[in-house]
């Protein structure tokens, strides 16, 4: 009997300020397009939801066309549509979800709503190895910081070992950057300014790393305040600004990597995956590699351009769901701005409804 080829999955991402569209079939990336409204938010110091939504409306169809053109395909070749249904900015999510429903209906193909953070977990599945099962995942994005135990990403419940009690790691980078007078978005600016400077110049706190603290729980708002207080208290400091920035960054990545490695060790899991926008941070990547090697763990981090939001990760997750026999999401799929991450797919008619 001839083997049925997998359908081409179109992935759509619009949860924040990036409009991403990509086409993936059978783990192979066929084409992609990305448009960002980041510059339009810079003067406000953070993402303005209405501006982001308007930019998505303007960019979405051109991105679909560009992704198809780069793949040498037409809309008629699309066999399934995957879309970020949440979490994210409500106004922004609505644009992607509405567009995905329209494409799926017009093309008469199945629709898969997916969780944005599960998309991050799938970011380097295209043109790469399957994910190890089980693995410990550290998600570090602008809105979330979590340590997870992940089995089969398409089928198994995702278990939270710990989350942040307050600010996310990316949010902490963005807020501290603002205090230090660096441009938005703060994470890449801190990363750039820290290079070549002394990470040990100042001993900023490492929150929740005491012996009696919850081992996998994070807290970054106190660190943010500590940096702000230090800057206020030392207006004429001889410590160069680059050293302050490098010391702050070191505190964040020290805590992230120490807790991630502890989770691997405690759960006797030999594979660590680090994803999300902050995973693009060069010091986090270097320290994680160094510590994983010392601990005998295998480390996987997507290429830097696949760490921040993009359409490829959503198409890759959609492709994984399709190939694992997942039933499509309900046709009345709704945007879920506050969706909790306990499974990769959202808007499932009957949870655990898998063909095989
Ligand atoms: O995953 P992402 O693109 O969007 C969300 O889902 O939130 O993450 C964006 C976050 C922002 O806070 C941004 O400052 C941070 O990732 N980020 C970085 C770097 N690149 C992006 N943080 C530290 N170093 C970087 N190189
Ligand atoms: Zn993200």
From TrEMBL:
User: Does the record carry Cytoplasm as a key word?
Assistant: yes
Q: Name one Pfam family in it.
A: TsaD
- What are the subcellular locations of this protein? Cytoplasm
Gene3D superfamilies from the UniProt entry? 3.30.420.40
Q: Known CDD domains for this protein?
A: ASKHA_NBD_TsaD_bac (cd24133)
User: What binding details are noted for the cofactor?
Assistant: Binds 1 Fe(2+) ion per subunit.
Q: Which GO terms describe its cellular component?
A: cytoplasm
Instruction: Quote the record's binding site residues for substrate.
Output: 139-143, 174, 187, 191, 281
Ranges of residues in domain Gcp-like: 30-315
Q: What is its EC number?
A: 2.3.1.234
Keyword Repeat in annotation: no
As its record notes, the protein acts as a catalyst of: L-threonylcarbamoyladenylate + adenosine(37) in tRNA = N(6)-L-threonylcarbamoyladenosine(37) in tRNA + AMP + H(+)
Alphabetically sorted, this entry's keywords are: Acyltransferase, Cytoplasm, Hydrolase, Iron, Metal-binding, Transferase, tRNA processing
Q: Enzyme class, one word?
A: transferase
The protein's required cofactor(s) are namely: Fe(2+)
- Per its record, what are the GO molecular function terms? hydrolase activity; iron ion binding; tRNA N(6)-L-threonylcarbamoyladenine synthase activity
InterPro entries in UniProt: ATPase_NBD, Gcp-like_dom, KAE1/TsaD, Peptidase_M22_CS, TsaD
Chain positions recorded as Fe cation binding sites: 116, 120, 309
A biological process (GO) annotation for this entry?
A: tRNA threonylcarbamoyladenosine modification
Tell me the domain of life.
Answer: Bacteria
Similarity comment: family membership: Belongs to the KAE1 / TsaD family.
What is the role of the protein in this entry?
Answer: Required for the formation of a threonylcarbamoyl group on adenosine at position 37 (t(6)A37) in tRNAs that read codons beginning with adenine. Is involved in the transfer of the threonylcarbamoyl moiety of threonylcarbamoyl-AMP (TC-AMP) to the N6 group of A37, together with TsaE and TsaB. TsaD likely plays a direct catalytic role in this reaction.
List the HAMAP family hit by this protein, alphabetically.
TsaD (MF_01445)
Indicate what this protein is called per its UniProt record: tRNA N6-adenosine threonylcarbamoyltransferase
The organism is: Frankia torreyi
